[in-house]
């Protein structure tokens, strides 16, 4: 999908990122929106919001993406779960080098099922693939893929440290975050048409939580992001 500026979009898609703390959710948003190295970020407190207009290349349709980045800490769950309402896409992120973050996935999935519409596309996303080359992987692709298939989830792997336009591998599992978003958004558009209610919810919730990624971005070359 191509990025666009301004208005003129015909659809709104609500995308929610959830998962344990420090798996890199905010880093993935930075990479997708800015295509910059996501380092020196602090853990998300509550919920952060940003939006972007993209063009769905097969149809030429302009879509505004509303991206909600939620905190992974237990103390914020009572707040963040309210933002699942009306979601078109939910991404459950985990860290391939952190076994505990993967073992939390069933809890996140159960919470999603209680708070999202049936037609919501759910993607299980293994992040920090850059650590695989240093033998830090603690969750095999086969195990994660089995779990995703058994629960009807889309499955992908990526790294926020990769360029967002890294092409998908031959089995369409591993790739840059933009390619993964493209595939997931395309699935969501094909599955259902958007309802008016989620759009109104987004409009009401937008005030006071909009995230200015460019303003917040800082760079420290010797620090990895764990947000």
TrEMBL record:
Q: Which InterPro entries match?
A: P-loop_NTPase (IPR027417), Small_GTP-bd (IPR005225), Small_GTPase (IPR001806)
Determine if rRNA processing is one of this entry's keywords: no
A single Gene Ontology MF term assigned here is:
GTPase activity
Q: Which domain of life is it from?
A: Eukaryota
Pfam families referenced in this protein's UniProt entry, alphabetically = Ras
List the Gene3D superfamilies: P-loop containing nucleotide triphosphate hydrolases
- Recite the UniProt keywords alphabetically: Nucleotide-binding
Q: What is this protein called?
A: Uncharacterized protein
Q: Which organism is it from?
A: Blepharisma stoltei
